[in-house]
Design a protein that fits this description.
Layout: E1 7-10, E2 15-19, E3 29-38, E4 45-52, E5 55-62, E6 68-73, E7 79-84, E8 96-103, E9 107-112, E10 115-116, E11 122-124, E12 135-138, E13 149-159, H1 168-171, H2 185-189, E14 200-202, E15 221-223, E16 245-249, E17 255-257, E18 265-269, E19 275-277, E20 281-283, E21 287-291, E22 297-299, E23 301-303, E24 307-311, E25 317-325, E26 330-333, E27 339-345, E28 350-353, E29 356-360, E30 366-367, E31 372-375, E32 378-382, E33 405-406
Parallel strand pairs: 16-18, 17-19, 18-21, 19-22, 20-23, 21-24, 22-25, 23-25, 24-26, 25-27, 26-28, 27-29, 27-30, 28-31, 29-32, 32-33
Antiparallel strand pairs: 1-13, 2-12, 2-15, 3-8, 3-13, 4-5, 4-12, 5-6, 6-7, 7-11, 8-9, 9-10, 13-14
């Protein structure tokens, strides 16, 4: 299960504030999304707010009756927008999502989770909302008034974007619509929606929740100390790159890939905690490169004409299905603690460089025309070998650092070089 970033606001000292937003512009159109898991009800709280000279210009609040109130003002402080939902929001046990999209010249929609929930009353004037404010606050006004208590997940504000939320496909750009909504996989990958970049995008965990990831460098200042909380789930992506390239740079907590990459390249750079490929990942003419520190990889990996390169420190490398490099090379560089695999390399080369503590190949490990090269110290290698005298089909040690192994049956390197 992959979860989005989130942070707990204690309701006493915790809130975020900053000066004017970069890359922002006044507009008649905007979309606002907030994932939330409340810890307190019956108290008026401000969730996000923009002000100029202490005067409100834009805010989303929850009143003491547990009703959302969204307000907007023009640059002269004229009150042009007020929208309330109709159903009191009292749950404090699960994640929910507030989603609003409006065009002051056309109309608007307000959704709580996947249900439209607009009281149908309020103020709606064809005018431009002032988004170029002096100050902004999240979890309170910028001065700390009306503090929020509970967890916030991803928050996004897109001035200039209006989508008809009565169209389900538009709601799916933000969340899954489940009873407990998940963050949409597309939004998790990029905050740009229909070509519009948000002015605020807060998707991180509590330690860096105040850091804006919109690309506009609109980081907030943390007041008090935000605490950890488990964020909403992220939708699993069906990923298919036919002729393209997927590059993930930075820290990846969980990545589930359920479709193949046919002629593309998958590159993971940085720190990866969990990589799960639940269906065969096929790189017909491409390359898979994993660089950095990887704690766990569970894959069914089929490389037909490509190369697999693992660079860095790997704690666990487990192949649950055939790993087949027909014309490619398998290279493991760095310190590998465990390799458990059913690996079939037909015309390629296997190179292991560094310290390998355990190499387990419980089924055929077959290099027909390739080369096996081992550099470093093997503490334990458990394989099935054709020649009981040596697990690699040879009577001579691979290197001076090679220690004890357990030969068995079915190891076929006799057409290769050890």
């Amino acid at each position: 299960m992959a979860t989005a970033g989130a942070a707990s606001f204690g309701g006493t000292n915790e809130y975020l504030d900053r000066a004017a937003l970069s890359g922002n512009a006044d507009s008649k159109k905007f979309t606002l999304m907030v994932f939330y898991n409340r810890a307190a009800t019956g108290v008026q709280q401000t969730w996000i707010a923009g002000r100029t000279s202490g005067s409100s210009r834009f805010d989303l609040r929850m009143n003491a009756s547990n009703i959302f109130r969204l307000r907007g003002f023009n640059s002269s402080a004229g009150f042009i927008l007020q929208r309330d939902n109709s159903t009191a929001q009292t749950d404090t046990s699960d994640w929910h999502v507030f989603l609003y999209s409006g065009d002051m010249a056309v109309g608007d929609e307000m959704y709580i989770d996947d249900s439209e929930d607009d009281s149908g009353t309020g103020i709606f004037t064809d005018d431009t909302i002032d988004f170029t404010n002096d100050t902004w606050g999240v979890g309170a006004f910028d001065n700390g008034n009306e503090k929020y208590q509970g967890c916030f997940g991803p928050i996004g504000l897109w001035p200039g974007l209006h989508l008809d939320l009565t169209t389900e496909a538009n709601r799916r750009l933000f969340h899954t619509g489940d009873a407990i909504p998940k963050l949409a996989a597309t939004l998790n990958s990029s905050p740009i929606v229909s070509g519009i970049t948000p002015s605020i995008w807060l998707p991180n965990g509590f330690a860096t929740y105040q850091e804006d990831e919109s690309g506009n460098s609109n980081d907030f200042t943390e007041n008090g100390t935000l605490a950890a909380c488990t964020g909403p789930e992220i939708e699993l992506a069906d990923l298919s790159l036919v002729k393209g390239t997927l590059t993930l740079t930075g820290k990846t907590v969980s990545l589930d890939l359920n479709k193949p990459l046919v002629k593309g390249t998958l590159a993971l750079v940085g720190k990866t905690l969990l990589l799960e490929l639940n269906k065969p990942l096929t790189l017909v003419k491409g390359t898979l490169t994993l660089t950095g520190k990887t704690l766990s990889r569970f894959v069914k990996l089929d490389l037909i004409k490509g190369n697999l390169t693992l660079t860095g420190k790997s704690l666990t490398l487990i192949r649950t299905g055939f790993e087949m490099l027909v014309k490619g090379d398998l290279t493991l560089t760095g310190k590998v603690l465990t390799i458990g695999t059913v690996c079939k390399v037909i015309k390629g080369n296997l190179t292991l460089t560094g310290n390998v503590l355990e190499l387990s190949a419980p089924k055929s490990f077959d290099m027909v025309k390739g080369t096996l090269s081992v550099s470093g110290k093997f503490v334990l290698g458990i394989v099935e070998a054709t020649n009981p005298a040596h697990p690699w089909g040879s009577t001579t040690p691979i290197s001076a650092d090679w220690t004890e192994v357990e030969p068995a049956t079915d190891e076929d390197f006799w057409r290769g070089n050890a």
